[in-house]
Amino acid sequence: MRKPADCTTMAHIRAEIDRLDDDLVRLFAERAGYIDRAAEIKAGVDLPARINDRVEEVVQNVRRHAETYGLPPDLVEKLWRRLIDWSIAREESRLGPDSLRKG
């Protein structure tokens, strides 16, 4: 693992980006495991996949993290809203669409 400043060639840069991409995919897979477990728990207590208050809480958390790490919060929010939508769709594939659930 090299720090960005220690990379002296494009091959070094590409290797580090590939390493980070692998880490990111692994973390997304780990996150998906928690999404799947959430769907199991929600099914048992009749909760919908989308809980708007929680969506907004997650968004505010990632905006704060983006600021901490020097990333543009608006861009990170946009990416995370896509991730949240994918996560909700994943839960709905197990629970059924929210529109068909009791509420």
UniProtKB/TrEMBL annotation:
Keyword terms of this UniProt record: Isomerase
Biological process according to GO: chorismate metabolic process; salicylic acid biosynthetic process
InterPro entries for this protein: Chorismate_II_sf, Chorismate_mutase-related, CM_dom_sf, CM_II_prokaryot, Isochorismate_pyruvate-lyase
Chain positions recorded as substrate binding sites: R14, R31, K42, E91
Gene3D superfamilies assigned: Chorismate mutase (1.20.59.10)
Lineage: Bacteria, Pseudomonadati, Pseudomonadota, Alphaproteobacteria, Rhodobacterales
EC number(s) reported in the record: 5.4.99.5
Key word Aminoacyl-tRNA synthetase present: no
Domain Chorismate mutase intervals: 4-95
Top-level taxon: Bacteria
Molecular function per GO: carbon-oxygen lyase activity; chorismate mutase activity
Signal peptide location: none
Keyword Cell membrane: no
Enzyme category, top tier: isomerase
SUPFAM superfamilies: Chorismate mutase II
PROSITE patterns per UniProt: CHORISMATE_MUT_2
Coiled-coil region list: none
Identification of the protein by name: chorismate mutase
